[in-house]
Automatic annotation (TrEMBL):
Protein name (Swiss-Prot/TrEMBL): Histidinol-phosphate aminotransferase
Molecular functions per Gene Ontology: histidinol-phosphate transaminase activity; pyridoxal phosphate binding
Annotated family: Belongs to the class-II pyridoxal-phosphate-dependent aminotransferase family. Histidinol-phosphate aminotransferase subfamily.
PANTHER family membership: HISTIDINOL-PHOSPHATE AMINOTRANSFERASE, HISTIDINOL-PHOSPHATE AMINOTRANSFERASE-RELATED
EC number: 2.6.1.9
Domain named Aminotransferase class I/classII large: residues: 28-353
Record organism: Mycetocola lacteus
Oligomeric and partner information: Homodimer.
Annotated pathway: Amino-acid biosynthesis; L-histidine biosynthesis; L-histidine from 5-phospho-alpha-D-ribose 1-diphosphate: step 7/9
Gene3D superfamilies, sorted: Aspartate Aminotransferase, domain 1 (3.90.1150.10), Type I PLP-dependent aspartate aminotransferase-like (Major domain) (3.40.640.10)
Cofactor: pyridoxal 5'-phosphate
Length: 360
């Protein structure tokens, strides 16, 4: 049988493992930080109608500039942004890949602060960029001092700042982001995939964009918008940075079906985002109950909670799975991560965990 080793694979991909969060058919899946609420039926009908109109024209290539989508995304983000400031792709993973294709690559480096989103190192490897896993402070926080020292030391071409950070939930404050920007000539990306779940009053890094042409803010419709299956991520930046991304995207990368679906969803932003408050409430409930059970949940601005104090993460993961509840072992010793679900999913998780926890 032929194996990967027999193929003339690029050297830097040898020994790499593909992204592989388990996709299991279980009653309660709280492992990949999805929004577990289904799309409101009225909105779904509207999306279908918009797609139906599009199907008849699929003989033609889609709008390469996805203008309607960019206008709607700009309107949603506010902050004085216009369509010229917006970019989109098939998930924010692809957006980040575009950024690395334009600004990183062979002989160049990407700095992130570990533990962080596992795709960053894989995206780096895919484009032959050197991944530098920087260090955080205690409790997975990132101070300006700690970050700037590492930026000065490594002089990366690109910095990825995940805020709130996956898998820890930790936000990065705007002073730290601004200090990192000032400490580098490279591109600074703030991955705000989970921004909508932050407490009221939390300022987005979007407010830092004016006057910072090397700052790029990445977002997604996969989480708060409950649109993960549609694959729509986006980014806001100076129009010059958007021009750079245009150089590396494949022509017509966003299908007419994707554009139609995303536009329709954005025409119903309030309904699509209606469950965000509920999810934040479930997240807070998880944090409170985990503490009562003797675990140590970390500070989170996201729709998930990383908790420590787990004696045997793999054993607890398996015991929950046997009860139909899938969460995530992110490989941090003594820790597991769980996404906030609907009220009943969250209850199922907390009840199973209480039953399994000798600490309560
Ligand atoms: N960034 C972060 C921090 C994420 O956690 C995820 C999804 N897990 C993504 C980006 C990618 O999301 P998508 O490609 O669905 O937009």
């Amino acid at each position: 049988m032929t194996t990967l080793d027999d193929l003339p694979l690029r050297d830097n991909l040898r020994g790499q493992v593909p992204y592989g969060a388990p996709q299991l058919n279980v009653p309660v899946a709280l492992n990949v930080n999805e929004n577990t609420h289904r799309i409101p039926e009225a909105v779904a009908h509207d999306i279908v109608a918009r797609i139906a109109e599009t199907v008849i024209g699929l003989n033609r290539y889609p709008d390469r500039e996805f203008s309607g989508l960019r206008e709607r995304l700009a309107r949603y983000l506010g902050h004085g942004l216009t369509a010229e400031n917006l970019w989109a792709a098939n998930g924010s993973n692809e957006v980040l890949q575009h950024v690395l294709s334009a600004f990183a690559g062979p002989g160049r480096t990407l700095l992130g602060f570990a533990p962080t989103y596992s795709m960053y190192s894989l995206l780096a490897a895919g484009g032959d960029t050197t991944w530098i896993p920087g260090l955080r402070d205690d409790e997975y926080e990132l101070s300006a001092e700690t970050a700037v020292a590492q930026v000065r030391e490594h002089q990366p071409n690109v910095v990825f700042l995940c805020s709130p950070n996956n898998p820890t939930g930790t936000p990065i404050n705007l002073e730290t982001i601004a200090a990192i920007y000032d400490a580098t000539d490279g591109v600074v990306v703030v991955d705000e995939a989970y921004a909508e779940f932050a407490p009221d009053g939390t300022e987005s890094a979007l407010s830092l964009l004016p006057g910072r042409p090397r700052l790029l803010i990445s977002r997604t419709m996969s989480k708060a918008f409950a649109f993960a299956g549609a694959r729509v991520g986006y980014l806001a930046a100076d129009p010059a940075a958007i021009d750079a991304l245009r150089l590396v995207r494949l022509p017509y990368h966003l299908s007419a079906l994707t554009q139609a679906a995303a536009e329709a969803a954005l025409d119903h932003t309030d309904e699509m985002l209606a469950m965000v408050d509920d999810i934040r409430g479930q997240r807070d409930r998880i944090v409170a109950r985990l503490s009562e059970l003797g675990y140590t949940p970390h500070r989170t601005h996201s729709n998930f909670v990383l908790f420590g104090g787990v004696e045997d993460p793999q054993a607890l993961f398996t015991a929950l799975l046997e009860r139909g509840i899938l969460i995530r072992d992110v490989g941090i010793p003594g820790h597991l991560r769980v996404s906030a679900g609907t009220e009943s999913e969250t209850t199922a998780f907390l009840e199973a965990l209480s039953a399994l926890s000798s600490k309560a």
